[in-house]
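Blinded run. Sample ID left blank on purpose so nobody reads anything into the name before looking at the predicted structure. Input follows.
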Amino acid sequence: MDWHYNDGGRAAAGYKGTTDDCVTRAIAIAAQMPYQGVYDALNELAKTERPLLRQPRPSSARTGVYRPTTRTYLNQLGWEWVPTMQIGSGCRVHLRADELPSGRIICKLSKHVCAVIDGVVCDTHDPTRDGTRCVYGYWHKP
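Blinded prediction complete.
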């Protein structure tokens, strides 16, 4: 699978350095939205989160967004979740162009989220692991 460097507009928004903003970047890239707009919307949504045992701090567009917050935001944008793996099923879909649909999708990987556009990964690094990286599911806009 090809990989192209894309920071989702982070540098253009005035941010410097590296951080764990993969959810913000992936949404900005796949949904063709301004990075700052996605960043602000995710942080606003994070204010509604309740502290839980596994989520003691609220989500942050800069340092990590929890799965329920990601789902809520993408559902608000009209995106749908397609699971590609079930508990105990093993990995059936990998981060490979021939195993994913065409178009603009946001893939959920282990500890990472990335945008894939027509079989090309758009991210700040290559997360494919030479086509062996398992895709837990993906969001797409019907």
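Unblinding after everyone has recorded impressions. The longest helix spans residues 35-46.
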